[in-house]
Give the backbone structure.
Amino acid sequence: MMDRKEFFQSCGCVLFGGIAISAVTSGCSSSTYTAQHTRNGKLVTVPLSEFVENRNGVFQPRAFVIVKLAGEKYPIGVYQHGDKKYSALLLRCTHRSCELQPLDDYLICPCHGSEFTTRGVVQSPPALVNLESYAVTVENNDVVIHL
Ligand code: FES
């Protein structure tokens, strides 16, 4: 199994002084998809269909989608888990507030390398605190994020 360093080397992804090359999103992960959503106060609704990708006629689940709220500095990463549960994570590193890079099975900070699980639990320092997360419910055909 490939470790993190080998992973980035194989992708041609390089970190320069805290700035991640965008190839991390475009080449290493399956894809980073920004989902359509609506917001009503503290409720953000994402259609369940946004979690499915059509690849040449073959429908496949997306591991996660990104929600970019108007006026908010940091996006939210919404991961779906096999048990039809979802986690909504603010993509702000708890170390020094860099925007996290979500990948299919973990999140990494491009600034100093902290890593988090797809449920927001810190896995490697320098961050020591879990990610800010939001309650998520599934209502009819929507995922609803409770800010
Ligand atoms: S800001 Fe994320 S590890 Fe330092």
Summary: The first helix runs from residue 4 to 11. Confidence is low (pLDDT under 50) at residues 1-29. The two ends are 37 Å apart (CA to CA). The chain has two helices and 15 strands.
